[in-house]
Amino acid sequence: MTAPPPDDQQTALVRDHTIYSCVMGSRAFGLATDASDTDRRGIFLAPTPLYWRFDKPPTHIEGPLDEQFSWELERFCELALRANPNILECLHSPLVEHIDDTGRELLTLRPAFLSRQAHDTFARYALGQRKKLDADVRTHGAPRWKHAMHLLRLLMSCRDLLRTGELVIDVGEARDDLLAVKHGEVPWPEVEARMNRLAAEAAEADAKSPLPTEPDRARVADFLFRVRRASALQSDPDHQVV
Hints:
The protein is an alpha+beta fold. The chain has 2 domains: about 10-115 and about 215-235, Beta Polymerase, domain 2, CATH 3.30.460; about 115-205, no CATH class. The longest helix has 24 residues, at about 115-140. A 5-stranded mixed beta sheet has the order 3-4-2-1-5. Residues about 235-240 have low confidence and may be disordered. The chain contains 11 helices and 5 strands. The protein has helices at about 10-15, 25-30, 75-80, 85-90, 100-110, 110-115, 115-140, 145-165, 175-180, 190-205, 215-235, and strands spanning about 20-25, 40-45, 60, 70, 95-100. A hairpin with a 5-residue loop joins strand 3 (about 60) and strand 4 (about 70).
């Protein structure tokens, strides 16, 4: 089902209040081909006075461009603190299209969002995707190879994050091997073996990861308070917000 277009207020939030936007998907992962879409992700900061109304600002907006999706800053931070894989990867895209001072400060907080919780969230997401691939194999005799490729990429990313404490989303030298999977050039049993090996390596890395056990919620909360307060004062400079 196609999502309805955003209304004028939502379009204005994305147009006028985006603090960070980037390209995600295959282009950010280093897996793009000539046929790849351009997936855009962004974060907008809804002006604080909008929260003083009964009708609150949206937590996310789809559009107005094709393949574009944006989160309100607080919702984005909530998901990042839960180590949501898609959210964490968004913060580490090498293809930044727009950023302002608030967005730059958000990027300095990237380490605050990273913790060993990533193993659980990445692993749960991977398990869900693996079940879908197994169902495809049972039903159709083969998986959706593109999805298999991206699952391998996710498992590699999780393992390396736990090993190094840093999230790097460009696949680098693994590009050719992953694209071979996408093109169905690697037998499914071999792909399964790779997935199992990567999952085991991630679990091993988790046991001695340099990442903290929990994210730094206090640091993120302080950032959110300051940007909300600054937004309120900017809207009404004569009003004292304490």
